Amino acid sequence: MFDLVSIGDATIDTLLQVHDAEVNCSLHKDRCSICFNYADKIPVDKFHRKVAGNAANNAVGSSRLGLKTAFYTILGDDGSGEFIKNKLMKEGVDDDFIIYDPKQDTNASTVINFKSERTIFVFHARRSYKLPKNIKTKWVYYTSIGPDHVRLNKQIVEMVKKQNIKLAYNPGTYQLRAGLKNMKDVLAVCEVIFVNKEEAMSIVGPQHDTRHYLLALHARGSKIVVITDGPNGASVFDGKEFFHRGILKTPVVERTGAGDAFATGFIAALFHNKSVGHAMCWGTANSSSVIMKYGPQDGLLRANQMDGFIKKYGHACPCAE
């Protein structure tokens, strides 16, 4: 029996730190473009190759926070797939549910980091997902996968109902593009859903009010709704109370994996029977630690680091008191 099984795609991230670029924004400050000289050679200041993907980030982070963790994913039968598997095993993640696809490559992304913000180019190999029948777990973390997610949705809903599993849902790009109609059965059995403000808007429609998004997603089944909003922090509704927590004042190297880290810390706290307020504190601390380093996993906190990090940076957190 596992404490948590993370379900989703894994990837190899190539992170490029650049300085020779510029950002152009329209009158709407949230509509910006990063620009390079066309047909030019762009110097790269730093280069990193990291294992990534929402589910992989969660699996590594959950293992570090003391959960017995496994990972269901499909990798290409290539060097990159082997690299991902070996990295996860070194982090204590069980590989029983890792499958190799001999016909497709391993997923890959290139992350352009400029002035602490990232732009991501993503390659997603087409997969055919089928959950192993021998998964036994207390929690499932279901997140970004490819276009074949509709069939996997049904398998996950059946497993959650049959085993009375607690489901954490962090929908990825393809799941969000499929719309509410294809998400509703998953939402109906959620213990907690994690989305950012723009994703919440895409699911329930533009209302420009975070409280409305929280209520609307809760009404669709999720017991706890978490909406992150970048530097504005995170908001939560647990069916009874609304919560909000700002970010911690930590240095920022780059922001890849911040959302995954928040969700991972939040779930780990709930697993350890902490309150929702405490869970927000763990999520915020984990996210703040990740953005202090390159890549989505190097900064993920271990169980014996959480309290010390919160005492150092999180003076407003209830668990720092």
Please outline the helices and strands.
Blueprint: E1 2-7, E2 11-17, E3 22-25, E4 32-35, E5 46-52, H1 54-64, E6 69-76, H2 79-90, E7 98-101, E8 107-114, E9 117-123, E10 137-142, H3 149-163, E11 166-169, H4 173-177, H5 180-187, E12 190-196, H6 197-204, H7 210-219, E13 224-228, E14 234-237, E15 242-245, H8 258-271, H9 276-290, H10 303-313
Helix pairs in contact: 1-8, 3-5, 6-7, 8-9, 9-10
Q: What report would you give on this structure?
A:
The chain is an alpha/beta fold. The chain has one domain (about 1-10, about 50-105, about 125-320): Ribokinase (UDP-N-acetylmuramoyl-L-alanine:D-glutamate ligase, 3-Layer(aba) Sandwich), CATH 3.40.1190. Helices cover about 35% and strands about 25% of the residues. It is built from 10 helices and 15 strands. It has helices at about 55-65, 80-90, 150-165, 175, 180-185, 195-205, 210-220, 260-270, 275-290, 305-315; strands at about 1-5, 10-15, 20-25, 30-35, 45-50, 70-75, 100, 105-115, 115-125, 135-140, 165-170, 190-195, 225-230, 235, 240-245. A 9-stranded mixed beta sheet has the order 7-6-1-10-11-12-13-14-15, with helices on both faces. A 4-stranded mixed beta sheet has the order 5-2-8-9. Strand 14 and strand 15 form a beta hairpin. Helix 1 (about 55-65) packs across helix 8 (about 260-270), helix 6 packs across helix 7 and helix 9 (about 275-290) crosses helix 10 (about 305-315). It is globular, with a radius of gyration of 19 Å. The model has no long low-confidence stretch (mean pLDDT about 90).
Overview in brief:
With 321 residues, the protein is α/β, with parallel strands linked by helices. Helix content is 34%, strand content 26%.
